[in-house]
Amino acid sequence: MEPFAAVDVLNTRTLLIGIVVFLVLFRTLRRPRNLPPGPWGWPVLGNLPQIMASGDKMHELFSKLTKRYGNIIHVEAGGISMVVLHGHDTAKEAFSQYELSARPELHITHAVCPSRIGILDSSGEEWVEIRRFSMTVLRSLGVGKASFEQNISTEAGILIEEIGKYHGKAFDPKHAVGNAVSNLICSVVFGKRFQYHDPAFQRLLKLLSDNITQGGAAGLLETSPIFYKLRMLPFVRRYVHAVNNFHKHFNVLVGEHTHKKDTDSPRDFIGFFLSEKEKKDKQGVESLALQSENLPKIVSDLFGAGSETTATTLRWAMLYMMAYPEVQTRVQKELDDVTNRNRMPRIADKPELPYTEAVLCEVQRIETIVPMSVPHMCSDDTTLMGYNIPKGTLVFSNLWHNHFDPSVWEEPKSFRPERFLDKEGKFQSREELTPFGIGRRICIGEHLARQELFVLFTHLLHHFTFKNPDDAPPISFKGIHGLVWTPQDFTVCAIERN
Ligand SMILES: *[C@@H]1O[C@H](CO)[C@@H](O)[C@H](O)[C@H]1NC(C)=O
Ligand SMILES: *[C@@H]1O[C@H](CO)[C@@H](O)[C@H](O)[C@H]1NC(C)=O
């Protein structure tokens, strides 16, 4: 052997060992003390390969890991440090903390969208201001109150007419249901509804549903800093493209609206925003959040969060009615007893519709549409149940796990609306059902969504019986995990009742 080659081999080996020792030391030293436990991860990529490999079942992957690591699990994924919380009590304790109520940077949205902040991604004082303002506006517009029920009923009537056009033949309800729900949020935001076949409306819905909802389980594409840099990958490029188109389109829509502004007597969210801003400008008060450049983002957040979610829940509800005809019949009987079939059901009838309400709750439990919740970010070093959570950590709450926790729900895998009824058959709400999240960042559209679900669902079942078409494959409850957990496309026959 040549003497030089021996030196080379030695050097290479020493170098390799050196690198390994360095990496291990670096990771150990860099790893803050007393983090929650979690599985081993690769250098740089962390646990991303495992998470990506779980595909649509990220929530199930983490749920299984609790057996080994307990309720708070720490992982690294593509340059971000994250913890996933399990159990209703864990989430409750975490999200009452201000430090755990911030939001992570949305890397792709911020790169392509000129607005600074919206509702979903704001943190700190800006978030407090924007949240308070948005809730006040929703209340002023009557959302969640009786006055808005009329608006929902009107839209429900149009939806029923639209579905009636199929005369009991099989159709995919995605568009009709999506149109109805989106129109309601459009009337809140823009003060107008669209015709279902209006090309501008169709385009808006397509922009939202096509590729944005494919943003990767729990929005990892947005929250991990590596994906925007990897935008040559086709699935990232598709998403970047969709986000870009969506925000461009919203800029145009908001721009059109601001032309005909009516700041004296605002009638929609944009009107209130402009009027409030004008007031603040006159008083010389500098507002953090109410900046014109934020408006398109705020509006698109309201729209994005307010349409896909409720429409998806309604489609799941239809699917369960098709799969459980005896449940559907029982809901219809309850509705008929209250209305005598000579009027439509109303929210005021709720006390007499316990089973119907229980069915809606059970659908929201068994198909948790945001299984991993919307990620939070830790804004300052804090502790949770004895563990350290360093600043900058992403915090997910595994709502799916909580909704299937066998210590809370008996036989969690079965669809059983009765679990929301007491012995006398009265509706019994359950604290552990949290489809809208928990704590300080609980969904601001909760009242709106509940109202929409109740009115649209009862009106539909008053009017139709949903059946799986004879030639359709057996009903599947397999979901797709984009930004929301959606059923696979399906067709339905809507048979008119008389
Ligand atoms: C509800 O409908 C009425 C009548 O069409 C309309 O004037 C009002 O702006 C709507 N409210 C909201 C919040 O969309
Ligand atoms: C969604 O992605 C597909 C495939 O790349 C593309 O053809 C389509 O135009 C995209 N849709 C939107 C609305 O960006």
What tags apply to this protein structure?
alpha+beta, two-stranded antiparallel ribbon, 10 strands, globular, binds 2-acetamido-2-deoxy-beta-D-glucopyranose, iron, metal-binding, Cyt_P450, heme binding
Topology as a string of helices (H) and strands (E):
HHHEEHHHHHHHHHHHHHEEEEHHEEEE
Chain oligomer state: single chain
How large is the count of helical segments?
18
List how many beta strands DSSP finds. 10
Main β-sheet, in a few words? 4 strands, mixed
What level of helicity do the residues show? 40-55%
The hetero molecules present are: 2-acetamido-2-deoxy-beta-D-glucopyranose
Strand content: 5-15%
How are the elements arranged and paired?
Blueprint: H1 3-30, H2 48-53, H3 58-69, E1 72-77, E2 80-85, H4 88-95, H5 107-112, H6 124-140, H7 146-164, H8 174-189, H9 199-210, H10 220-223, H11 226-229, H12 234-259, H13 269-283, H14 295-323, H15 325-339, H16 354-366, E3 376-377, E4 382-384, E5 387-389, E6 394-397, H17 399-403, H18 446-463, E7 464-467, E8 479-481, E9 485-487, E10 493-496
Parallel strand pairs: 2-6
Antiparallel strand pairs: 1-2, 3-6, 4-5, 7-10, 8-9
Bound molecules: 2-acetamido-2-deoxy-beta-D-glucopyranose (2 copies).
One 2-acetamido-2-deoxy-beta-D-glucopyranose binds at residues 206-207, 210-211, 238, 241-242, 245.
